[in-house]
Amino acid sequence: MSKAVEKLKEEFLALLPPTVFFFFTLGLVAVLRALMLKGTGLSAATPITVALGALILGKAVLLADMTPLVNRYPDKPLAYNALWMTAVYLVVALILHYLERLVEFWRQAGSFLAGNEKMLTEMVWPHFWAIQIILSVLLLGYVVIREIVRAVGAARLRQMFFGRPRARPA
User: Fold this and answer.
1) CA 85 → CA 29, 64, 70, 81, 169, distances in Å?
2) Which residue, 104, 115, 67, 106, is CA-closest to 89?
3) Nearest-angstrom CA–CA distance, 36 and 18
4) For every one of its 170 residues, what pLDDT tens digit does the chain have, with 9 covering 90 and above?
5) Would you call 45 helix, strand, or coil by DSSP?
6) What is the Cα–Cα distance from 160 to 130, expressed in whole angstroms?
7) How many CB atoms neighbour CB 170 within 10 A?
8) C-alpha closest to that of 97 among 127, 55, 137
């Protein structure tokens, strides 16, 4: 196999876990938003939007992981890194969530400033914060599991979770 194909395979395998996680997470958030918005006349996310968002967030996590900002406490107990990384990812999620809503209001109002003003007055803030709370719990779970995998190894975690593989008959 050529080095380019090998590198693409490595990148794809690294991108897969966060992308799958964010696909299901954003899908759950989309369903919850649709339920909260039912009867309000506001639109909910489409499956294509969810998939595109998952790909973007999956790659963003990989890029963020390459910076020293994210992995600040590699030699401390796992809780330090898990809480720190969750906080960093939550700030990014908050900004992205705010901008996502802003784009909707910007389109309606015709300008950025008018859209921001309209959003600040018309948005249902309890819905916004409910989504942020759900994202925080899901992100914390993702980061905790990822830190455990980093500490014990993927093979060991699979063995711990699913048990020892059965011996194959000869």
Assistant:
1) 21, 10, 6, 6, 44
2) 67
3) 26
4) 688 888 888 888 878 888 888 888 878 877 877 777 776 655 566 677 777 777 777 777 777 777 777 778 878 888 998 898 888 888 877 887 788 788 888 888 888 889 889 888 888 788 788 878 888 888 888 889 888 888 898 888 888 888 876 666 65
5) coil
6) 34
7) 3
8) 127
The pair of structure tokens assigned to 169 is 């008959």
- Please answer whether residues 67 and 129 qualify as being in contact, where contact means their C-beta atoms are separated by less than 8 angstroms: no
Give the pTM: 0.70
Residue type, 18: P
Look up residue 101 and give its two tokens.
């809503």
